[in-house]
Amino acid sequence: MVWRISALVGILFACGQYGVAAQPTWPASTDELEDIIFLNTGYRARGFADPVTPCSTGVAPGRITAAEFIRTAFHDMASGNTYTGIGGLDGSIIFETGLAENVGAGFVTTLSLYAPFFSSRTSISDIIAAGVYTATRSCGGPIIPIRGGHKDATEAGPSGAIPLPQNALGTFKNQFLRVGYNATEMISFVACGHTLGGVHSPNFPDIVPPGTAPDDFAVFDTTSSTFDSRLPIEFVAGTTIDPLVRSNTKKNSDTVVFTSDTNNATIKSMQDPTTFANICKDMFQRMIEVVPAGVTLSDPVTAYEVKPYDIQLTLQDGASTIAFTGDVRIRTTQRSVAEVQLNYKDHTGATVANPISTIYKGDAKGFDSTFSFFSFDATLPAQDSISSFNVVVIVSGGTSEVFTNNGNGFKVDDSILYQAPQSCLDGSGKLTVVAAVRNTSSSSPSLSVVVKNPRSSVIIPALSTATAAMATQSAVGAYQLYSASYQFSGSQAQSAVFGVVAGSSSDNDKNTSWLPTACSPLSSSTPSSTPPTSSYSFQGCYTDAGGSRALSGAASYDDAMTVEKCAAACTQFQLFGLEYGRECYCGNTLDASSVIAGLSDCSMACSGNSNQRCGAASRLSTYKNLNYVAPVNTNITGYSYIGCYSEGTATRALSDGSTTSDAMTVKSCSTFCSGAAYFGLEYGRECYCGSKLQDGSTLQAATDCSMLCSGNTTEYCGLFGVCIDIDDSRVIHSHATVKLHRLELFITRRVDYQHIHSILPNIILVHVHVLPPNPHPQQLHLPRLRPRHTHLAPPHLSIHHLPVNDLHPLRPLLHRLPTPNAPCPAPATPPHAAAPATD
């Protein structure tokens, strides 16, 4: 159930994979099957569709795996009997691959591809059904609804049930009627089943004589790897290439079937593509829903709008806190996600005020849905813990959706916790598992292990389950620790699944992939140095396409950029963002032109860590510095702050003394100027003293003095910038401006940028103002200038922006430059000034 929050009302809706449908409630017995069906590529992809993507894919020339998937399902189902309730789609095909009626390598190939997906959570017959959906969709066919809950047979079904090419019409009708299809539906089913693939000469040499077809494979129609209506179209038109029509033997079963009703009415009606798709959807869905009596299938499996993954509570050292970790998947087919949060309730069911934030992890997609994944890692008080959570999805534009799992909340059971850090798998195959059981539970825990055991002449292994009582270890806080061991044999550990159970509570579906070879004990005391929580939180994907940078405080670039590197470079700012894979920007506020965008817009991997996302072109992956302390104008005993002032007209605003230091603070400057009437700070590291403010020094906007002190980034220490004029004789003039970390060139003639660079080799241009009558910027010879943003501002002003890493090396050079013939159109640099306090 989904509620969309607006100013006044909540709108209730639910949408499913196959049209309007109720959303599943998590967890469901079909969760593993849902992943297999819908996560084809991307983050957490299962890869089930890989063997049939594209549709023409085969394991060898003349093989189409998608056709083999569908044929396997039909042969598995065809031995069923709807009258007796025996057989159907039950996986019995795994015992029947040696029968003559199951000739061909396709069955063994298909089952071998299915084997890795078989587990205690998904039967092989569920996987066979999923193969029908996957093969049909990969080839452009309709969406086949899939229901989970198929039960696997333990032995082969009756032989002689599969329709063979030489059968008489009456035999065909009886065979199809036995599994629920009447004579008309028999025609439809065969047309649908033969839209893909063909007949192999080695299997039926009398139908396809060797050497008469490419790769000894005669296809059914001219689009043998597309799910379409070409087969009935070509049959009706008399242009068919179907070997089961054209065969000169009596094995022309498609002719027998397609012409079995009056005037070939059924096959003619299926020439229409929409009619063909709708009929085939019904035929295939009914095929995979023929099941033995007593088997109850689930509702059709639909893609969750929100689905949790790997939800884990882990008791930490000292037992005073619990780590709460996992992923949340959001369906993005019809929404653009900006941010995801978890609102949760504690162990008692009380709502906790502070939500849990998440970090974007990656995207995935299936045939009909797209998804984004978000990860969380929170530390909770063990006593309070967590009992459930709702998921808040903030979409582009700021609107929120709250997902409540059909009003149930997403449940989290803290009664028994699998302790991965204390568990291990040693080199001999011995598994040791530790669990923490809350002391309010009266049930004794046990370890459950499910292993796959190979079977002779059967491709799919057998499953066996073993349980072991867990022995008491020690009490820690609100929990009691238990442990148990299990000895694997051979390669069992690689595919084993295990879990811990205590009464009605469990923590299951664990695997051995990440277990260490040695177990670590859980300390009963809290560590003396607890690792800090994350120092930043993801804020979303923002645009950076305006005339000004979204974050304009500082910038850096690195071909090995990571989120951590950018965070370290921006510690003195409230926000930081990553763009275009390698760019890092810092600032305290986002520019007004920057708005939140969909997370999928920030799709570029970081150049230094492909598992992280670093924005994209004109898109900024934005983070908040959780340790940020807003800078202040520090109070100094004996002085009062009077404001941000410009330099004097012909001299420094404060000219009695000065000093510089890379460890400059307001306090150190006041100490240096002790006794002076005024002191001021500029450019983060410069300190000036004076008995008065010189002529021309005037009060400026407080925000103009925004540079932080080099020795204390929580204090302001003025500002610095430069402006350069270039005249006809290429003489460079300069004076100070209020442009922080900017260099401005006012160009009034055609100039050679290489000449500028030879004079000022360390400069990276930020602003280039091209004034008339100069040509358009593209006509200027500026080979090193690579502007990222351009806009025209009247009258005829083109502005190009590039970041400056550090202007400090430029400052001594500028002092040696001549006085400008005409002032640049910008005010002078203001110092940070303070005056003695007055009564």
From TrEMBL:
Residues 1-22 form the signal peptide. GO terms for molecular function: heme binding; peroxidase activity. Belongs to the peroxidase family. Keywords: Glycoprotein, Membrane, Oxidoreductase, Peroxidase, Signal, Transmembrane, Transmembrane helix. It comes from Lophiostoma macrostomum CBS 122681. Pfam families: peroxidase (PF00141), WSC (PF01822). Residues 123-278 form the Plant heme peroxidase family profile domain. It is a single-pass membrane protein. One of its GO terms (cellular component) is plasma membrane. Its main location: membrane. Residues 535-626, 638-729 form the WSC domain. The keyword Methyltransferase does not apply. It is found in: Membrane. One of its GO terms (biological process) is response to oxidative stress. The keyword Signal applies. This is Heme peroxidase.
